Automatic annotation (TrEMBL):
<dbReference type="Pfam" id="PF14403">
    <property type="entry name" value="CP_ATPgrasp_2"/>
</dbReference>
<dbReference type="InterPro" id="IPR025841">
    <property type="entry name" value="CP_ATPgrasp_2"/>
</dbReference>
<protein>
    <submittedName>
        <fullName>Uncharacterized conserved protein, circularly permuted ATPgrasp superfamily</fullName>
    </submittedName>
</protein>
<dbReference type="InterPro" id="IPR016450">
    <property type="entry name" value="UCP005522"/>
</dbReference>
<feature type="domain" description="Circularly permuted ATP-grasp type 2">
    <location>
        <begin position="69"/>
        <end position="446"/>
    </location>
</feature>
<dbReference type="InterPro" id="IPR051680">
    <property type="entry name" value="ATP-dep_Glu-Cys_Ligase-2"/>
</dbReference>
Length: 490
């Protein structure tokens, strides 16, 4: 039995959803359908789309949007936020260490081969300090809920985490379509995310920067599946969206072509993976990057967000050591727990996983987007046998986790409202002097009944995430009590 975020086991509606429940009870299904159709029309006009690589039909598609928001109390969010800040702080310290003294590897708290043989480990970064010692400027930490106060981190996304444009557009659409319901909840804002991101990026400009830093968003181009988000963020930040061909390096400084001539760039919010960012250092066949960019970066003349080499901390095998990493660098117990995980590289764990594949979720260490994954309880016998052979051939490349009972949130369908499993991707910004978490994040929802896969590439959708003030429910309770007292006196 999974935790339903709106309705308790006895049928009682949780107080945080009391206003939503009343709204649903008073709103005819055809009106909800109309609102959903309006939302889809708005998204089409805005142009918020994504593409799925490898499909014969490569047309841009809308991510399905659910009109019913996911709601959390501010008190619930506060505990989650503290855990996210702690985690990103530890990840930055971990990355700074593995590219310098490697103290955590010397102690054996994290196996050396998991780092040094990791395909995302960049030896070019060894002994090099990044501006302000920040590696993870923008983090997207995937979180799942299994109970009233039980949150687990599913994975850490610290290379080029995506999805923030959907968070912002979902909010804008909800404010347009349901202004009264929105106002009634006193929802914490997310629309200031671009301002927070811009301030964070400005704060990490190189020490050599003179005056106001020049910032640019570096995209692989319009054929990238997340290109909409790249252009959206550049527009919201008020900075230039550039491709590799728009930049060049001269005397170890990066310049951008403009109508007024070359302009020096101080901070690059890059949405290109390490392998393609500089053909002089990484893939020589890359036409997406900037020749000489790494020279400018290692000379300290430009900041790259996120840092080159941060992908080591994006690895699902490293993820399993996060409690040890937090303890090693911060001397603290992890506020947010990991999902219990079996490392198939370990003999006992491998034996257990192969014997219980039908019960487990198995993931490739470097997989993403819901690909390279087996959901045992929903897999066929043939799929399980195929995965068993893959794991046996290369056990180091896999981890396994129990099939968590992900929480469900009410979701609208033409046939009515039904619970569907959800996860949450909050976005964490690290600047020179602080770490900020935007209250809410991107809720992803598995639209297929009983499915646990929320990724858009696998048929999932999104919801707006509302973090609301506890006080509005206390006020409502007091008002109701006062009305009852007046009625009794009358």
């Amino acid at each position: 039995m999974c935790f339903d975020e709106m309705t308790l086991a006895d049928g009682e509606v949780r107080r945080v959803y009391s206003k939503i429940a009343r709204w649903l009870a008073n709103t005819p299904a055809d009106r909800l359908s109309s609102r959903r159709a309006q939302a889809e029309l708005l998204f089409r006009r805005i142009g918020i789309t994504f593409a799925v690589y490898g499909e014969n039909d490569s047309q841009e598609r809308l991510i399905p949007f659910d009109i019913i928001p996911r709601v959390m109390l501010r008190s619930e969010w506060a505990a989650l936020e503290a855990g996210l800040v702690q985690r990103v702080k530890a990840l930055n310290l971990f990355l700074g260490d593995v590219y310098s003294g490697q103290e955590i590897l010397k102690t054996g708290r994290v196996p050396s081969d998991l780092v040094l043989q990791n395909p995302q480990f960049r030896k070019e970064m060894m002994g090099r300090r990044v501006p302000h010692d920040i590696y993870v400027h923008i983090g997207g930490i995937d979180v799942v809920r299994t109970g009233e106060s039980d949150f687990y981190v599913l994975e850490d996304n610290v290379r080029t985490p995506s999805g923030v444009s959907y968070m912002l557009e979902n909010r804008e659409v909800m404010m347009r379509l349901l202004p009264d319901l929105f106002a009634e909840h006193r929802v914490a804002p997310v629309e200031n995310y671009p301002d927070l991101l811009l301030a964070s990026l400005r704060s990490v400009a190189p020490l050599s920067t003179r005056g106001e830093p020049t910032i640019a968003v570096l995209t692989p181009g319009r054929f990238n599946s997340a290109y909409y988000e790249h252009s959206f963020l550049a527009d919201k930040l008020g900075v230039e969206l550039v491709e590799g061909r728009d930049l060049h390096v001269d005397d170890d400084c990066v310049y951008m072509l403009t109508t007024q001539g070359p302009k020096r760039v101080d901070v690059i919010y890059r949405r290109i993976d390490d392998d393609f960012i500089d053909p002089e250092v990484f893939r020589p066949d890359s036409i997406l990057g900037v020749p000489g960019l790494m020279r400018a970066y290692l000379a300290g003349n430009v900041t790259l967000a996120n840092a080159v080499g941060a992908g080591v901390a994006d690895d699902k095998a490293i993820y399993t050591y996060m409690p040890e990493i937090i303890d090693f660098y911060l001397g603290e117990k992890a506020i947010l727990n990991n999902v219990p995980t079996w490392r198939c590289r370990e003999a006992d764990a491998l034996k257990y996983v192969l014997e219980h594949l039908s019960e487990l979720v198995v993931k490739e260490v470097n997989g993403s987007g819901g690909y390279g994954m087996l959901v045992g309880p929903h897999a066929s016998k043939a799929e399980i046998e195929l995965f068993a052979a893959k794991i046996a051939k290369d056990p180091d490349n896999f981890i396994a986790q129990p099939t968590l009972a992900l929480s469900t949130s009410p979701t609208f369908f033409p046939s009515g409202v039904a619970p569907r499993h959800v996860d949450l991707r909050p976005f964490i910004l690290t600047g020179k002097n602080d770490i900020r978490v935007v209250p809410g994040g991107l809720t992803r929802v598995a639209l297929k009944e009983k499915s646990l896969v929320v990724n858009s590439s696998q048929g999932g959708g999104t919801k707006d995430t509302w973090v609301v003030d506890d006080k509005i429910f206390e006020d409502a309770r007091q008002t109701q009590g006062s009305m009852q007292d007046q009625s009794a006196v009358a």
